[in-house]
Automatic annotation (TrEMBL):
InterPro entries per record: Haem_peroxidase, Haem_peroxidase_sf, Peroxidase_pln, Peroxidases_heam-ligand_BS, Secretory_peroxidase
Cofactors that this protein relies on: Ca(2+); heme b
Family in the record: Belongs to the peroxidase family. Classical plant (class III) peroxidase subfamily. Belongs to the peroxidase family. Ascorbate peroxidase subfamily.
Key words of the record: Calcium, Disulfide bond, Glycoprotein, Heme, Hydrogen peroxide, Iron, Metal-binding, Oxidoreductase, Peroxidase, Secreted, Signal
Keyword flag rRNA processing: no
GO biological process per UniProt: hydrogen peroxide catabolic process; response to oxidative stress
Lineage, uppermost ranks: Eukaryota, Viridiplantae, Streptophyta, Embryophyta, Tracheophyta
Name of this chain's protein: Peroxidase
Plant heme peroxidase family profile domain location: 28-330
Species in which this protein is naturally found: Trifolium subterraneum
Binding positions for heme b per the UniProt entry: 196
Any one GO MF annotation of this record: heme binding
């Protein structure tokens, strides 16, 4: 997960796959799937993430984002984790992901620990889903029972990653269409966008809003003028677009409902954020107001939406495989003959619309 006007280096953080994929209503997922085969999986995932977050609190947002990016393409099958190989065109080099994905090494640490406890049992796709839930909890956010039993896919799709995701400069109707195509409704859109209550974004995603919105030579009129000046200090005109800004300037590492009060105050960092509140006559406005006033309503809707999203396009039963290493399908991994380190990650930028 560069600028709003001309580049596409980062697209969305919480969208799902093309309409042709199943919405997984028939998927046999169960929160107690590993009750007998790997009963310690939750505690193992939590321990690794908790330790990492002590020195890198931003990782919590990164892992939530990574789960979203997995489900964007080919369903929630860990395709985003696959490295480039003779048979794989990696999604990690797609516009929404290149130089922005974080957490790949953390997922590999979790996988190593899980494999030691219960080898060949837990999929990388389920590790991503659990990591998102546990990261939310550690950031004081919502908690949900994660349906488990996903299998890992055998391929990736970079071109789909490049085309299937809404961009941070899309208008509301485009955002709604992208979500509805995947079985997600308007409430899901507003709730899942609330993941931007923590994390960071590269200046590249919103710098046009500060100086040259829609090629007008002026800032975005929906942007709070005081907030505009604060952002200009972080992202000077002509300066580095790799600088990072908090999605939420008040509680940047906490999963709370401030995202919605920020929108009410015209302090949505990305255009696609502010569209939810500043689009005249939009039905999303009342939802933003509801979530701003009632944290429980937001959390409940987020839980419903992320569970729904986490079931899109999943493979179960005898489909796919349980990868031995999350960055390689098992056939490729067997050819390597040894454990290969995950590709080196870039600095986290939360460079995505969702």
């Amino acid at each position: 997960m560069n600028s709003f006007g001309l580049t596409l280096t980062a697209l969305c953080c919480i969208v799902v796959v093309l309409g042709g994929l199943p919405f997984s209503s028939d998927a046999q997922l169960d929160p107690s799937f590993y009750k007998n085969t790997c009963p310690k999986v939750h505690s193992i995932v939590r321990e690794v993430i908790r330790n990492v977050s002590k020195t890198d609190p931003r990782m919590l947002a990164s892992l939530v984002r990574l789960h979203f990016h997995d489900c964007f393409v080919l369903g929630c099958d860990a395709s985003v984790l696959l490295n480039k190989s003779d048979t794989i065109v990696t999604e990690q080099e797609a516009f929404p992901n290149i130089n922005s994905l974080r957490g790949l090494d953390v997922v590999n640490r979790i996988k190593t620990a899980v494999e030691k406890e219960c080898p060949d049992i837990v999929s990388c796709a389920d590790i991503l889903a659990l990591s998102a839930q546990i990261s939310s909890i550690l950031a004081d956010g919502p908690n949900w029972k994660v349906p488990l039993g996903r299998r890992d896919g055998l391929t990736a799709n970079q071109s789909l990653a490049n085309t299937a995701l809404p961009a941070p400069f899309h208008p509301l109707e485009t955002l709604k269409k992208k979500f509805s195509d995947q079985g997600l409704d308007t409430t899901d859109l507003v709730a899942l966008s609330g993941a931007h209550t923590f994390g960071r974004s590269h200046c590249s995603l919103f710098v046009d809003r500060l100086y040259n919105f829609s090629s007008t030579g002026k800032p975005d009129p929906t942007l709070n003028t005081t907030y505009l000046q604060e952002l200009r200090k972080i992202c000077p005109n002509g300066g580095s677009t790799n600088n990072l800004a908090n999605f939420d300037p008040t509680t940047p590492d906490k999963f709370d409902k401030n995202y919605y009060s920020n929108l009410q105050g015209k302090k949505g960092l990305l255009q696609s954020d502010q569209e939810l509140f500043s689009t005249s006559g939009a039905d999303t406005i009342s939802i933003v107001n509801k979530f701003s006033a009632d944290k429980n309503a937001f959390f409940e809707s987020f839980e419903t939406a992320i569970i729904k999203m986490g079931k899109i396009g999943v493979i179960t039963g005898n489909q796919g495989e349980i990868r031995k290493h999350c960055n390689f399908v098992n056939k490729e991994f067997a050819k390597l003959g040894l454990i290969t380190k995950a590709s080196v990650e870039s600095e986290e930028g939360m460079s995505s619309s969702f």
